[in-house]
Amino acid sequence: MSVSQFKSFMECEARTLAELRDEYTRPHSSALTVGSYVHSAFESDEAFGQFINDNYNSIFKARGGKYTDFEQADRMIETLKKDKFAMFALEGEKEVIYTAELFGVEWKIKVDNINHQRKIFSDIKTTQELGKRYWSDKYSKYVSFVEAYDYVLQMAIYREVIFKNTGEYYNPYIIAVTKQNPPDKAILHFDETRFDFEKEYVQMHLPGVIKTKNGETNPVRCETCEYCRATKQLKNTFEIEFLLD
Ligand SMILES: [Zn+2]
C-alpha cells in the first residue's frame, strides 16, 4: 500500500481497481506536471534537467518560450530559492524510500526530503492560495488545502513508517508555495494530535480497501469521477434531494 493508492481508493474504489488492472488510465493533468517540475528543481540539477527533457513538449511552446503554467512554476521555484528559511527546511537527503508494516499491511513511502541530524522531513506543496477554504466530507467542515488534499494523512503515515525504520518520531514540515503572482509561501508544522485522527481513519478504512483490492468485495463506484462518468449506465430515477449528496 502507498499513501496515494489509499487516497485513490478513498476517492473511488472502482476507478482505482480499474487503474491497478490496467483497464483505465487517468487523463494527463497539467497541475500534476507543474508540481513535479517544482519538486524536481529542488531534488537536484540532474533531476530537473531530466524532467525538462522528458516533458519538453508540455513545458515549451512550439514557437519558443514556456507555457504560462511553467513561467509561473519558475516564479514559485525562485520564491523558495530566495528564502533562506525555506531552503533550510529543505536541507537533507532527497527521494528516500522506506517500507514498513502498518495496520497489518506493507507500506512503501518516498520521502521528498529527510534530515536525520534534525530528525525532520519536509515536502514542497504547491497550492492556489494559502487561506483558501475547501468543504471536506471527511472532516465535516471547511478545511485548508492541507487537509483537503489529505496531506495530514500523508505526514501521519510517513511519520509512522520512518519511526519503524529509525526508532524515532521525526517532525514533518510542508513548504507551501502558491500559484499567485508573485507567489506566497509558508512553512507549516503540525500539532501532533492531528496524527491520531488520521491513523484511526486509515485503520478504520484499510480492511475494506484491502478486501476490494483482493477482489473479495465489489468495488464501490463514486459515480462522479471521470471513470464513473465514462462507464455509467442509468437504471433508475432519483429524487432531486439526492443531487446534493
Ligand atoms: Zn468514481
From TrEMBL:
Cited InterPro entries: PDDEXK-like_dom_sf, Put_RecE_PDDEXK-like_dom
Residues in Putative exodeoxyribonuclease 8 PDDEXK-like domain copies: 2-231
Tree of life domain: Bacteria
Protein name: PD-(D/E)XK nuclease-like domain-containing protein
Organism field: Ureibacillus galli
